[in-house]
Amino acid sequence: MISFACAAPALPAFPLPSSLGSCAIAETVLVVEDEIMVCELAAEALQEEGYRVLTASDADEAEGILAREHVDLLFTDIDLARNTNGLALAHRARRVRPGLPVVYTSGGRGHLAHGDAVTDSVFVPKPYRLSALVALANDILRSHPDHA
After folding, report:
1. Nearest by Cα to 98 from 29, 148, 62
2. Which backbone phi and psi does 29 adopt, to 5 degrees?
3. What is the DSSP annotation of 58-97?
4. Greatest extent of the chain over all pairs of C-alpha atoms, in Å
5. In this structure, are residues 39 and 31 in contact, taking their beta carbons and an 8 Å threshold?
6. Res 136: pLDDT
7. pLDDT digits over 102-128, tens only?
8. What's the pLDDT at 144?
């Protein structure tokens, strides 16, 4: 198993798998999750699919990553560490990157109220299958014209 440091902000990016070759350009997915094991599993599944994966354990850390990195998809838990919130994170991210695809997840909610989420976002309740997460990322990034 690959070791991921999901709670460590110093190294949020994971290298691309060597099977992609040095000239491949992979889309970048930012996984924002405060549960370390859940973060590691999601990041590993997305990386194995060929995505470049960045991780953050709270919204503040995620905003720093969004400010300095190109991100093609934001996958965020709703209730995060240090009383930060994935809903607010997505709204702030969309003000800077209006077309950024957003996928929300939560173990404490079965759905989102209509006005809570950013437009054209997706909600995936926990627990989710990693294969479903990967398939959703593939569908979103293949159908999104400019990857925000």
Report:
1. 148
2. -115, 130
3. SHHHHHHHHHHS--SEEEEESB-GGG-BHHHHHHHHHHHS
4. 43
5. yes
6. 98
7. 999 999 888 888 789 999 999 999 999
8. 72
What percent of the chain is predicted at pLDDT more than 90? Answer: 71
Tens digits of residue pLDDT in 42-85: 999 999 999 999 999 999 999 999 999 999 999 999 999 898 99
What structural domains and CATH numbers belong to the chain? 24-129 (3.40.50.2300)
Q: 90: which 2 tokens?
A: 């997505």
∠ CA 64-66-67, rounded to 5°: 65
Exposed, middle or buried: residue 76 (CB in 10 Å: 0-12, 13-18, 19+)?
A: buried
- Token pair for 143: 């159908």
Quote the CA–CA distance of 113 and 92 in Å, as a whole number.
Answer: 18
The number of beta carbons lying within 10 Å of the beta carbon of residue 69 is 13
Amino acid at 80: L
